[in-house]
Amino acid sequence: MLLNAIEKPATAGHSLPPYLLELLGQARRSIEVDPGFTRRCLDEVSTLLGSADAIVIDRDIVEPQSVPEPTKFTKGGLAPWQLKRVRAYVEEELDGTILIEDLAIVAELSPGHFCRAFKASTGETPHGFIVSQRIRRAQRLMLDTNDTLSQIACACGLTDQAHLTRLFRRVLNETPLAWRRNWRTA
């Protein structure tokens, strides 16, 4: 049965983590049937956590915080300052071509060492990270603008709408047009 309203804990004796887990569970159960309710659940969780960027919507929105910022060194990984600089560089250059060699220069490492260290630190390849960032930006633009998918693809550093569609389908198992329609009507 689908819930029509967000249920808050009945008593003050409930601890916050179970309530958050319940909200996330309600969101997950309703994501395909009622995206609007899912958004309300996630907005409530966001409010409780104090950060809208901390929310992951199952498979429909790429996790914004996909690269963790380690507080200590990962053996064989990047130092926190290197990871921070690489993330900032990727965000700045997302609308253009990003080469591994350029990322390695930003991190002050050789390209081969950089790729191994990035994977050790984040669990994904630099290319995979860049693709997820491009898809995340495309999702934001699809929700926030009325630009065509072709324009959005170019703004995300992709060659054309077909390229966007291929990557989007690979990551989210859905076309950008279908995703946009689902989330715009919610």
UniProtKB/TrEMBL annotation:
Record-linked InterPro entries: AraC_XylS_family_regulators (IPR050204), Homeodomain-like_sf (IPR009057), HTH_AraC (IPR018060), HTH_AraC-typ_CS (IPR018062)
UniProt keyword Transcription regulation, yes or no: yes
SUPFAM superfamilies per the UniProt record, alphabetical: Homeodomain-like (SSF46689)
Protein origin, superkingdom: Bacteria
Keywords associated with the record: DNA-binding, Transcription, Transcription regulation
Pfam families, alphabetized: HTH_18
Domain annotation HTH araC/xylS-type: ranges: 84-182
Keyword DNA-binding: yes
PROSITE patterns, A to Z: HTH_ARAC_FAMILY_1, HTH_ARAC_FAMILY_2
This protein's name: AraC family transcriptional regulator
